[in-house]
Amino acid sequence: MAQQALQPNTAGSLFATDGKRHPVQDALTAVTLVLGVVSFVTAQFDSLHLLSSWTGLVGIVTGAYGQWISVTTRERFGLILGLGASGVGFLLGMAHGGLFGGLW
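Request: output the structure for the sequence above.
Response:
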């Protein structure tokens, strides 16, 4: 029995530590991470505040829903990274002009 605990878990997805597949949670994690990176990177430029604020807002929403339905710790870890980057990008985008700044 002790040898079984040392065997690597090869079943399931990359983020699933329980041996089951979680395609919805994995997709939400990937989307949140991508949106977070885009939002954080574009927030460094004043002229890209529309892209930064909108991707940050969508990243926060997808990350929050992903946290709500997440099952494993690995999924939650990726979601927290994406949520943090999305939050920073969203707030900097809002500071540079907001969601609709310069359109009206």
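The chain has a mean pLDDT of 87.
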